[in-house]
Specification:
five-stranded antiparallel sheet, four-stranded antiparallel sheet, 5% helix, globular
Length: 393
């Protein structure tokens, strides 16, 4: 069933009101009155909700106290197959999650969030234009949701209505190509990252060993395909997974999954082109197991880069040189469990949560803002086979 809703519709109001908030919501630009929005956005006691997708079928909620670092499990809140990635609306109590039931085309589902209980109510869904959606990026200015479809090897743009509900599927770009690794028989777009000028969407493709710089137009919300000159060719068989921009957007740091390599590139936002700067292994020289890079993130000030390494169950911290774009390893530590599938930095910049998939737990690390280094707090919460973490503050 297609639940895509139009802005300001009474159906949207009734679903959110009756199923989640039990409030008589009045109509405004976003479908809520100001008093309701203030109440719904008040997390209370400095706490945040954390939504964890699980490897099988389901979405679980946790409560995180940003004052103490305490994490507690709230329980299952939705039945959603392979919820690999989520993103929260910046101003409204809405969560967008990808899902993959094995169909030829995946979906993104919008949920209304009850900040007090963590309960979710599905309020709409939309096709992602390809199979196996695995990553999202929300551009609030153009009201666009960008999607990377891993299974189908494509990237799409979906319009958002003013009330946060899902609009139409606007555009889809299909990648082509393959690589030498057994997991590279076809394209596998693994992430979507909009640059600060909103002119380019950078897409690491695990299957083709490319980082594409597709064009993006905020007015039309359409993507335009990158030419060969707008695609960086990574090392054969490396499998680019995710990336982060430097603070000034002059550099891009890319984590490859298949070789667990960290590659720094100079980024020319005017030309939409890359130039190599540095490549580093994230695994030890004596390691002989399966290499698998998992996640990469940047500190708020851009001075530090955080990397997850599944093969050795480790986290790493790198200092970033703002002038050269080069990275220097300053810390390696255990992730607190097995198979750190992903991690997420809290908006305060003080905490990092790790989804240890084989341990069925989410572990809490403290971030030192001055040194950038991590400390395992020893705090954790149960979450069956977690594969995604999304904060709703």
């Amino acid at each position: 069933m297609n639940w895509t809703l139009n802005s300001g519709t009474s159906r949207w109001h009734s679903i959110v009101s009756a199923a989640v908030f039990s409030l008589a919501l009045s109509v405004s630009e976003y479908g809520y009155c100001a008093e309701d929005l203030m109440a719904l956005n008040a997390p209370g006691m400095g706490s945040s909700l954390v939504y964890s997708g699980v490897r099988g079928n389901g979405l679980r909620a946790l409560r995180f106290d940003a004052g103490t670092g305490q994490l507690s499990t709230l329980g299952a809140v939705a039945e959603l197959p392979k919820a690999r990635w989520g993103v929260a609306h910046p101003t409204l109590p809405i969560l967008y999650m990808t899902s993959d039931d094995g169909s030829a085309v995946g979906k993104v589902t919008a949920f209304a969030v009850d900040r007090r209980s963590g309960a979710l109510q599905a309020i709409g869904e939309q096709s992602t234009g390809g199979s196996g959606p695995t990553h999202l990026w929300l551009d609030a200015i153009s009201k666009t949701l960008l999607v990377a479809n891993y299974g189908g090897g494509s990237v799409s743009s979906i319009a958002l209505n003013s009330d946060g509900s899902l609009g139409a599927l606007v555009s889809t770009i299909q990648h082509i190509g393959a690589g030498p690794h057994r997991r590279q028989a076809s394209p596998h777009a693994h992430g979507v990252f909009l640059d600060a000028g909103a002119k380019h969407v950078l897409v690491p493709d695990l299957g083709t060993d490319r980082i594409y710089a597709h064009g993006f137009d905020r007015e039309s919300r359409k993507l335009t395909e990158a030419g060969a000159e707008h695609a960086f060719v990574a090392a054969a068989g490396s499998g680019p997974r995710h990336l982060v921009f430097s603070k000034d957007q002059r550099f891009v740091h890319v984590l490859s999954e298949l070789t667990a390599e960290l590659t720094s590139l100079r980024w020319d936002a005017v030309q939409g082109q890359f130039a190599p700067v540095q490549s580093l292994p994230t695994h030890g020289t004596a390691f002989t197991g399966t290499k698998s890079g998992s996640e990469i993130a940047s500190s708020q000030d851009g001075r530090f880069i955080y990397v997850g390494n599944r093969g050795e169950n480790q986290l790493q911290v790198y200092a970033a040189n703002a002038e050269s774009g080069e990275l220097t390893l300053i810390q390696t530590l255990a992730c607190g469990g097995e198979n750190p599938w992903t991690f997420a930095l809290h908006s305060s910049g003080r905490w990092l949560l790790v989804a240890n998939e084989r341990s069925n737990r989410v572990n809490v690390f403290r971030v030192d803002a001055q040194s950038g280094k991590l400390t395992d707090t020893g705090q954790s919460a149960e979450s069956p086979a977690p594969i995604s973490l999304t904060f709703v503050d």
